[in-house]
Design goal:
Helix content: 25-40%
Order of helices and strands: HEEHEEHEEHEHEHE
CATH architecture of the largest domain: 2-Layer Sandwich
Number of strands: 9
Structural class: alpha+beta
Strand order of the largest sheet: 5-6-4-7
Number of domains: 3
CATH topology of the largest domain: Alpha-Beta Plaits
Strand content: 35-45%
Shape: elongated
Oligomer: single chain
CATH superfamily of the largest domain: Protein of unknown function (DUF541), domain 2
Radius of gyration: 35 Å
């Protein structure tokens, strides 16, 4: 009789622990109970997970999700060349510095922070008249001072005014105009969220079609993405002589595996 009672208790204990796995406090037990000292630790699964574990590895449904986010650029990076010539080096340098001062004043009036206006390169070289037959400089005529000034304009609507005023102040060439975002991670986050929403919608549709119940995600893998710029055609038609920012676009992809039952 005592033997039967012990066997029955052991079987009951196994049945109670059938939904538990090693790694955490005993299922349904008080971990502070002194009678449990030295007992193995287990992880309790919820009722749905227990059903999966009792029948082997979970069944899964895997999908890809894609997200696209767009935004107009909010920063314009511009580079200008500023060149001066003089019979002697100090004269060329003085004229160049005067032009740079006027250009800085233009951007200051446009509300550009001083830290967003920087000298990207500087050079001072002699120049002269080349021999028409050999092309070799035969006589030094003076010096050329060259500077490249880089500007981050955080108000794209002021590009037109900036271009006109900078050349009036002494810039001699424009080396490039680029549109971008001051905080590109914001666009990344929006595209990522839309990719996850797309994956969830795809998984729900497939689960309904297959007649299964969709569970929680088991794994999520970001597939990366790509960024690009698309011109604003309406802006180009309205003002063909002024650069148009267009739209920045970021795409992201995710791969998600869900439990199903």
């Amino acid at each position: 009789m005592h033997t039967m009672s012990i066997v029955s208790l052991a079987l009951a204990g196994l049945a109670t622990m059938s939904a538990c796995t090693p790694g955490a406090p005993l299922c349904g037990a008080d971990a502070s109970d002194p009678d449990l000292a030295g007992a193995p630790t287990v992880i309790c699964e919820d009722s749905a997970d227990a059903a999966y574990s009792s029948s082997g590895p979970p069944h899964t449904l895997s999908v890809m999700g894609f997200g696209v986010a767009t935004s107009p650029p909010d920063v314009v990076h511009m580079q200008f060349g500023v060149q001066s010539r003089g019979p002697v080096a100090p004269a060329a340098l003085a004229d160049n510095q005067a032009k740079l001062g006027r250009i800085r004043a233009v951007f200051s009036a446009l509300g550009v922070a001083e830290a967003d206006v920087q000298i990207a390169s500087h050079s001072l070289n002699p120049y002269g008249e080349p021999d028409p037959l050999t092309g070799v400089m035969r006589e030094q005529a003076g010096f050329i001072a060259d500077n490249t000034i880089s500007v981050a304009l955080r108000d794209p609507s002021r590009v037109d005014a900036a271009l006109g005023e900078v050349f009036a102040a002494g810039a001699t060439s424009i080396l490039g105009v680029g549109f971008m975002l001051g905080d590109p991670q914001r666009l990344h986050a929006q595209a990522r969220e839309r990719a996850m929403a797309d994956a969830q919608a795809r998984a729900e549709q497939l689960a309904r079609a297959a007649g299964v119940t969709l569970g929680r995600p088991l794994s999520i893998t970001e597939q990366g993405g790509s960024a690009g710029m698309f011109p604003d055609m309406s802006g180009m038609l309205a003002s063909p002589s002024v650069p148009t920012p267009g739209q920045m676009q970021q795409t992201m992809g995710v791969s998600v595996s869900y439990r199903i039952r």
